[in-house]
Write a structure and sequence with these properties.
The chain is α+β, with helices and mostly antiparallel strands. It has a single domain, classed as Glutaredoxin, CATH 3.40.30. A four-stranded mixed β-sheet has the order 2-1-3-4, covered by helices on one side. Strand 1, helix 3 and strand 2 form a beta-alpha-beta unit. The N and C termini lie far apart (about 40 Å).
Length: about 130
């Protein structure tokens, strides 16, 4: 029987990099989660009340319009707990955090991250580790 630690090692591609496990078997090349959490009026700020629902719809429509090929998935998520920076998105397998707020941000994100991975052109959209 495997221990919890052994199971985690098999599932975590970062920890498995040099352990002989195939860490390149991700189903999606990019998997972007968009927080859509909506809190009640008067509570802490939430991404859903900061425009994330509209941004998710825009991301999905533009992906379809651009006929972006490959295994890319953009989907809604519950609270990602970085609400004050929102609306927030997180992309895997990198674990890179973003704050897209406008239609222009969506266009830049799709062009320079999803389609071509030119990170230097989207740095202003990336949430820094210390934020």
């Amino acid at each position: 029987m495997e221990t919890d630690c052994e199971i985690v090692l098999k599932l975590d591609p970062i920890k498995n990099k040099n352990r002989g496990f195939d860490s390149m078997t991700n189903f999606y090349t990019k998997h972007v989660f968009v927080c859509e959490n909506v809190r009640a009026e008067g509570e802490r700020v939430s991404c859903g009340r900061s425009g994330s629902i509209q941004l998710l719809a825009s991301l999905k429509k533009k992906m379809k319009d651009l006929s972006i090929e490959g295994k890319v998935r953009i989907q809604r998520a519950g609270c990602l707990d970085r609400c004050e920076l929102g609306p927030v998105q997180v992309s895997y397998p990198e674990g890179r955090w973003f704050s897209l707020k406008t239609e222009e941000d969506v266009d830049i994100f799709l062009k320079y991250y999803i389609q071509s991975e030119q990170i230097q052109k989207i740095e202003h959209l990336i949430i820094k580790e210390n934020q």
